[in-house]
Each structure stands twice: as C-alpha cells, then as structure tokens.
C-alpha cells in the first residue's frame, strides 16, 4: 500500500482535509514533551493528546505501553485515527502503537524534524528499541499519509538540522553526483524555507521510489542501509557508553566508514570520498574511537538486524547511484576501514 | 500471502522437511509449561526452547517481553525461524513475537489443541491480552505454515476438546446444514483419530476459504465473528470476576445468544436454534448470569474491537451458510436475547 506523501507548509489545513475525508471515530495525537506545543498549535481541539517523554532512550516498551493504555482508556476503536507529531522517535513509536492496537488502526505522520521528514516518517518502518538495541521490535506498517513541511524546522537546534542533513547526503549518494554536489555546496547557516522544502522533496523522493519497489526490505530497499551498519554500531556503542549521539551524526560517521569500504571493495571515487569526509568532519566533527573500541563495535555490527548468521553486512557503492546490497565485510576489512575513518576525521 | 496448511499425524517428519527447505539461521520453539513435553518430543535438538507459563491470563506483555528477550539473548536474526507449539495462547503470542521481532521473522504454528487447530493457528491473527481486554494488541501476520494433526488431542482434558468443538459448530453453521448435522450427531466420547482429522480438515477449510478472501477482516472475514460478540463478553466478564472460562465454552454460549438474535432479526430456524442450544446445554452446561450482569456484559460488547463508535455489532445468520456481518444490535435486543439464552440453558 503506497503512502500518500504531501508536501505543504499549511499543515493544519492539510490535516483538516484528511480528517474530513477519513471521518475517524476518535482522534488521537502522540507527541513528545518537545513537540507538544506544535501538536497543540494544529487546532485539533477534538483530539486526545498522548505525550511521551522526549529522547530516543524513551522509544521503549514503557512508552509504547503508555500509548496503548491511553488509547484503550479513551475508547479508541479500529475506526480511530492516530496522528504522530514529532521527530523520528515519535513517528516510530506512534506508528508501531497504531499498527498493533486492535491489530492495526490508521495513522498519519507529521514529522517536525528534518531527520523525521527525510527518513523516519516515510517508508512504513515502525518500532521501538529493546534492551539497548535500536528498533529491535517493530512492524512494517505504512502511514495512511505523511505530511511534510519545513515550517517546524526553524526552531530546531542546529545539531538536529545536521542530523537530517546526514540522511540527505545518503539519499544523494544513492541518487547521483549532481544531487550530492548540490548538497555539499549548501550553506547550512543560510537556508530559506522554499529551498529547504525543495531539497527535502528531492531527498524524500529517492527514499519513496526505493521503498515502493521493496516495502519489506527483501531486496533493493537495503540500499537505504548505506552508512547504517557502521552508523548503528557507533550509535549503540555511544548509548552503551552513556554518551548518546544523535542518529544522524552516527549515520554521517557511518557514511564515511562505508565509503571507505566502497573505495576498498568497489573503487568508489577517492575524490568524492574525501569531499564527503571533509564536509562531515567540518560540520559534524569526529566521533572519537580508539583501537580498543573496535571489538565492541564489530560485535554490535555482527548482531545488527541486517546481519545474517553473525556476519557483517553493508550496502556499498561503486559510484553515486550504483549500490551493492548484502556485501559481507570481513572483520579485517572493517578494522582497516575504521582506521582510515579515524585518519580522515583526524582522530 | 496464503498460509500453507498441512494435515498430518507425522508432525516431526513434516517439520524436518520444512526446516530443510527453509534453512533458517537459528531455530526457536515457543511452548508453554503444558506443551513443553510435546515440543521436546519433536526431536529438534538444535532448537532453543522458550517457555511461557500456561493459561490465557499469561498471554500478556510480560510473556511477550520474555520471548523477545530470549530471542535477542540467543542471537535470533531475521533469518531465524520460530515454531509455536501449543494451544491458541501459544500460537497467538508466539506469532506476535515473531511478527514484531526485528520487524518480522518467519514462524510455523503447530497447534496441539483442537481449538488451536480449528481456529487460533490458522488465519494470521496474532496478539496478546492487555489490561484484561482480549487480543487488544496484535498484528495480522500469516504463519509460513500451519501443521495440523490429531495426534496430540488424546491427552487433552475433555473440556479442551469441547472448546475446539464449539468453534467447529461455528464453522459448520457458516458452511451448511449437512455439516452441522454431522457435528451434532458426533459422539464426543468415542472419537477415533481418522474421523477426527477428517472433521478438523472440513472445519479448517471453512475458515481458510473465508480468510483467503479477506485477510484483514474488512469484509466477509467478519463472518467468523459469529458467536464472538456475546462470547467475548462472557469470557471477559468471567475473567474480570475471577472465574475464567475456556474460550470455546464462551463461544458456545455466545453462539446460542447470537442464534437467538439471528432468529429475532433474520428468522433463523427455531428448530436448529433449539438443536444447537440443546447440544451446547448438554455438553457445555450453562454460564450462569443474572439480569444484574447485563449492564456489565453490554458495556464489554460496546468496547469490543468489532464495535464501531460504541455500538454492539454482531454477525448473524438467516440460515446455515448465509451470514450477515456488521449487524448493529440495540441494547434492548441484546437484553432480550440474553433472557432467552437463559431460558434455553435453563438458568
């Protein structure tokens, strides 16, 4: 079932039209403590608002159980509609709550962060973290609609913008060199809403086209895992060490690592690798690791959802737009790539 | 995705063939404390066995979380296979755990009870109870295969056999009068394995044909809810009152109630109604309720998953094989039907 993706900076009107069309029996909003003001600003006075604490470490079973309980207590039925208003944490957990409440009620995603707009809110992946493993429990469940705007981005911290930008770089790498060049030439300190919404649309369409061809990640959808084997490992490692990093930052560093592997295995352009690494080093800084951390990182990679029988699997590129999924990377290769990652980011 | 349904009394061989074919990376069995001996008898020495406490009140978030944790701890990947060996409680929770672990791994159902074989294990409904509401959280997720046999039924308590028989009566009512007559003429004290497997196959095929036409219960699958609006209410009411009853018994009493409604609204044959009520009274006995319980029962029915905006919805019959879904029943009609239910069962 394809998702309807609507690009508009008049979110309230788009939502009113959707609700008028769907005529749900009961309207529910899931927001977190940060996005609650945005949820309340949408003018949906008839909605029950369910709030979960902000932060990816709250994307857990407790928050999920809280949403289920509130839906139940307030009489949600199979004909109810749930709106998730927030970043990826909110759309992930809200979508999973909706996908499993009474075996599935309809939901609409209203991403409020750049990362949510270009990644989490689109494509039907929902879920929660479990025992420190990211998105360990979840379901493939397409939102009825995703409403994407740039009007909530102004209030985001700069680090949040960067987080979304990392996924946009990934999409550009999967699309073509012109798209990559345009992004790397973007002045992040001077983004106007029009240009931003245009860049977002380009980026979302890369993801949408891939997901449409393979909704359940049995084939080419794995392209979207570019940067994520190393990225998730950085993210989990940081979480375990008590110094969590934003998902997008982890993806940025993961992209550098996996472009190194792409160069080693598929002769991906050294010049582009250096351009991307320079951009990421300049804007995201480095994620400090030492050789002593490699064992822990490799172990996380081997337990990744994408892994088959304990091997490390990556999506790699031979050039922009040309990807290879399910590439098995040996521990030695990954170790070499982590060494070069540290060189490129001057660690 | 249609489920493969295999009827065989050589379950171990069928499973070996399935596993040889699927070549899973990691094999897991979910069983409960009652069905653990059956699980161990299948000869799958390579499997990790995960045990949950028996009983429908353990079909809850704690048991689900335990299964997820054990899968994770023992290195389950997306290429792993989970076998649910048990009654409906085990196949429901095992299926839901599999459907949501890493957003879905493959699973095979091996029902060990008659009720599980003719109902829970087939059709893709998975889930758990939540805050005393049955199957409140779950997913539609088809098993890779369902292996149905009659060889585990011999050790079942008589009440468990009866529980399954109630669903078989329901399927016969949805199929035709000859099937119903054959069932009502069955001597439950003298069932041989061959005849039992033949009756089970006929019954399962009724359900399978309906589910194939409507996997997500948006239309005719609701036929299978016959007896279940009143039945679930009896079951939840009994659970809340601390005197739980088997699901099949609740369905049997629900069938009597809804055949009364079918007679009132659609002139369902009074003679057949009495035949079914007599059979059920004789084998299942009555579920004792008084007028003072009606408010609680009606309130549960109005909060049923099948309900739309707080109304009571039933599937009713005009005759065997001819059903009407989504029939809204007024509180007065349901009250009258409960009165007649009590008369028919001599309460």
Description:
The structure is a homodimer of 347-residue chains. By secondary structure, the first copy, chain A, is of the alpha/beta class. Helix content of chain A is 49%, strand content 18%. Chain A has 13 helices and ten strands. Chain A has helices at residues 11-22, 36-41, 61-73, 88-100, 114-120, 158-175, 177-184, 193-213, 228-240, 247-266, 270-284, 294-302, 331-344, and strands at residues 4-7, 27-32, 48-52, 81-86, 106-111, 125-130, 133-140, 145-148, 312-319, 322-329. Chain A has a six-stranded parallel β-sheet with strand order 1-8-5-4-2-3, sandwiched between helices. In chain A, strand 2 (27-32), helix 2 (36-41) and strand 3 (48-52) form a beta-alpha-beta unit. In chain A, helix 6 (158-175) packs across helix 8 (193-213) and helix 9 crosses helix 10 (247-266). The first copy, chain A, is globular and about 55 Å long. The relative contact order of chain A is 0.10. The model of chain A has no long low-confidence stretch (mean pLDDT 94).
Question: What are its keywords?
Answer:
globular, 18% strand, alpha/beta, 13 helices, 10 strands, 347 residues, 6-stranded parallel beta sheet, two-stranded antiparallel ribbon, homodimer
Structural class of chain A: alpha/beta
**Unreliable runs of chain A, pLDDT <50, ≥5 residues?**
none
Oligomeric description of these chains: homodimer
Order of helices and strands of chain A: EHEHEHEHEHEEEHHHHHHHEEH
Largest sheet of chain A: 6 strands, parallel
């Amino acid at each position: 079932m394809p998702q309807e993706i609507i690009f508009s900076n008049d979110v309230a009107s788009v939502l009113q039209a959707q609700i008028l069309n769907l005529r749900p029996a009961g309207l529910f909003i899931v927001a977190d403590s940060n996005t609650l003001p945005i949820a309340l600003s949408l003018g949906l006075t008839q909605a029950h608002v369910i709030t979960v604490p902000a932060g990816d470490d709250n994307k857990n079973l407790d928050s999920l159980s809280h949403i289920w309980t509130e839906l139940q207590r307030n009489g949600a039925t199979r004909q109810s509609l749930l709106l998730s208003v927030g970043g990826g944490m909110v759309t992930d957990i809200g979508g999973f709550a909706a996908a499993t409440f009474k075996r599935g009620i309809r939901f609409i995603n209203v991403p409020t962060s750049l990362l949510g707009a270009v990644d989490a809110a689109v494509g039907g992946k929902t879920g929660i973290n479990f025992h420190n493993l990211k998105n360990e429990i979840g379901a493939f469940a397409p939102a009825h609609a995703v409403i994407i705007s740039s009007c909530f981005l102004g209030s985001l911290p700069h680090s949040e913008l960067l987080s979304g930008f990392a996924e946009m770089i990934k999409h550009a790498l999967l699309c073509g060199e012109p798209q990559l060049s345009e992004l790397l030439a973007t002045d992040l300190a001077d983004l106007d809403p029009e240009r931003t919404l245009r860049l977002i649309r380009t980026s979302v369409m890369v993801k949408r086209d891939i997901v449409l061809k393979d909704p359940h990640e049995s084939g080419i959808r794995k392209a979207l895992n570019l940067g994520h084997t190393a990225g998730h490992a950085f993210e989990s490692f940081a979480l375990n060490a008590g110094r969590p990093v934003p998902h997008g930052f982890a993806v940025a560093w993961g992209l550098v690592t996996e472009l190194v592997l792409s160069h080693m295995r598929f002769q991906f352009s050294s010049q582009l690798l250096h351009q991307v690494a320079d951009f990421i080093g300049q804007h995201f800084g480095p994620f400090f690791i030492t050789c002593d951390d490699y064992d822990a990182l490799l172990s996380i990679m081997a337990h990744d959802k994408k892994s088959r029988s304990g091997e490390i699997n990556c999506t790699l590129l031979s050039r922009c737009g040309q990807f290879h999924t399910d590439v098995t990377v040996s521990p030695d290769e990954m170790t070499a790539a982590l060494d070069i990652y540290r060189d490129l980011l001057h660690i």
